[in-house]
Amino acid sequence: MRPFRNVWMLEEIGFGYHHVNCKPWSKRAKAVHPLGKVPALLVEDDDNQQQFVVVESAAINTFLGDMTREIESNKRTHDDTINKPSRRLLVPPPATRLRAKYDSLTLFIMTELDFQALWIHRKHSDMKNVFGEAPIAVAEAKRQFDKALDAIELELNDESGYLLSSGFSACDILLSNCCFWAQQIGWLARSTSEDEPSSPVAGDTTMPKSLSPKLASYLAQCRRRKAFIKANELRKDQGKGKEHHRSKL
């Protein structure tokens, strides 16, 4: 689920990339990540003829957003006829109020929804043969997810329809991806009417969390984005063993 966030981001901003499908802890993964985890972004710095690596999906997307802004700014510096960016700017500029909001939401999503909830399920349910079974920890992780999702849903902006008032951003990629992940493992209902008990019990970790109309609308508009659709098609292709190359733009 995590590498998909970066492919989606790359499709949004239109940068060229080569997506290598490799498993965690594999020799290929260990060559670019200190712990052999995925995703990892290997960046080719043509100006200095060097390479460097960025790890962690949220950090990768933030780096890509910052790099996009810098490239677009340099274009306008050298060509005063360019009035607006040719690529989407999905990360706010540093040292701004909007960037502070972006950073806060990004870290909240990664710590409260991903690391303390979804990843616990991944480790102790889907990968229990590696990390061991821990049903109590998984149940508590589900409660954590429910509380955190309630909190982050309050952050959805009524005017923009996304987390930031400026519109769709890289933190929406993280939140929607976490929600899609939760739907896949049965933690979040796939529709506003799915699996809703007649008398819901607070803190019940066996039932999917109900999907509010507001969150359902938010996830639907994220799914409709062209970059999401393209990234999803690429994921299906890689499931068949195909690697993806995207020419530099």
Task: Please specify the SSE layout and strand pairing.
Blueprint: H1 2-13, E1 17-19, H2 27-30, E2 40-45, E3 50-55, H3 57-78, H4 97-126, H5 128-131, H6 135-153, H7 170-184, H8 213-223, H9 226-239, E4 244-246
Antiparallel strand pairs: 1-4, 2-3
Helix pairs in contact: 1-3, 1-7, 1-9, 4-6, 4-7
Envelope shape: globular
- The residue ranges in which pLDDT falls below 50 over 5 or more consecutive positions are 197-201
Alpha-beta content class: mainly alpha
Report the major sheet: 2 strands, antiparallel
Name some characteristics of this structure.
249 residues, mainly alpha, two-stranded antiparallel sheet, 53% helix, two-stranded antiparallel ribbon, globular
What can you see in these coordinates?
By secondary structure, the protein is mostly helical. The protein has nine helices and four strands, in the order αβαββαααααααβ. It has helices at residues 2-13, 27-30, 57-78, 97-126, 128-131, 135-153, 170-184, 213-223, 226-239, and strands spanning 17-19, 40-45, 50-55, 244-246. A hairpin with a 4-residue loop joins β2 and β3 (50-55). The two termini are 26 Å apart.
